[in-house]
Amino acid sequence: MLTKKVEEFCNRQIEREGYSSNLYLAMASWAEAKGLSGIGAWLYAQSDEERAHMLKFIKWVNERGGNALIPEFKKPPVKYKGIPEIFAEVLKHEQFITASINEVLEVAIAEKDHATTNWIQWFVKEQVEEESSAQQIIDKLNLAGQNGVYFLDRDIMKLRDND
Ligand code: OFO
After folding, report:
1. Would you say 49 and 163 are in contact if contact means Cβ atoms under 8 Å apart?
2. pLDDT value at position 64?
3. Over the stretch 129-153, which tens digit does the pLDDT of each residue have?
4. Residue 18: left if φ>0, alpha if ψ -120 to 50, beta else—which one?
5. 36: nearest Cα among 28, 44, 26
6. Domain that residue 53 falls in
7. The pLDDT of residue 163 is above 90
8. Total number of domains in the chain
């Protein structure tokens, strides 16, 4: 059984994972409309993963005797400056999500909720991978210089290792 506090933080995380999914969906659509279908495909896949993260939290809350609430989501930006800016934003957003997951973990520890403390380790590991894959893309873009976006669009799907 979840305590009220753990339930509240998990519900907060449902909103954050859902917003992440919509944010990456908005970025995917923007990139695709600019003709960058490779980068678009990467972002669509990322958006799907975030939806799966949201569902994991929904199911966990309900399974543990809580009530998972489906919130309203803030509208993500519709315009972006460019691909380097998008990936800088992806990294920043993932760092925010990492901090948020850590807060859920800290609340679970404080509430002596060993089950949630154990369950959420999957997310702790996932965040290490997500931050690292965003950083890897930024590094490649920086290395490639002028034609970086072109090469990234061509090769980005090869960088996905987890689907
Ligand atoms: Fe990209 O992170 Fe979900 O958890």
Report:
1. yes
2. 98
3. 999 999 999 999 998 877 878 888 9
4. alpha
5. 28
6. 4-70+79-161
7. no
8. 1
Rounded to two decimals, the pTM is 0.93
CATH number where 15 lies: 1.20.1260.10
CA angle 95, 99, 100 (to 5 degrees): 115
Q: Probe ligand 1: pick from 10, 97, 121, max atoms within 8 Å of CB?
A: 97
**Residue keyed to tokens 């090469």:** 151
- Going by C-alpha positions, the residue among 79, 84, 72, 71 that lies closest to residue 152 is 84
Rounded to whole angstroms, the Cα distance separating 82 from 133 reads 19
Mutate to test the pocket of ligand 1, among 23, 127, 162 (most ligand atoms within 8 A of CB): 127
If you count DSSP H runs as helices and E runs as strands, how many of each does the chain have, helices first? Answer: 6, 0
For the segment 44-100, what is each residue's pLDDT rounded down to a tens digit? 999 999 999 999 999 999 999 999 999 999 999 999 999 999 999 999 999 999 999
Nearest ligand 1 atom to the CA of 13 is 4
Rg (CA), the chain: 17
Encoded tokens for 63: 């399974």
Token digits for 1? 């059984």
Q: How far apart (Å, rounded) are the C-alpha atoms in residues 24 and 34?
A: 15
Which residue type is seen at 30? W
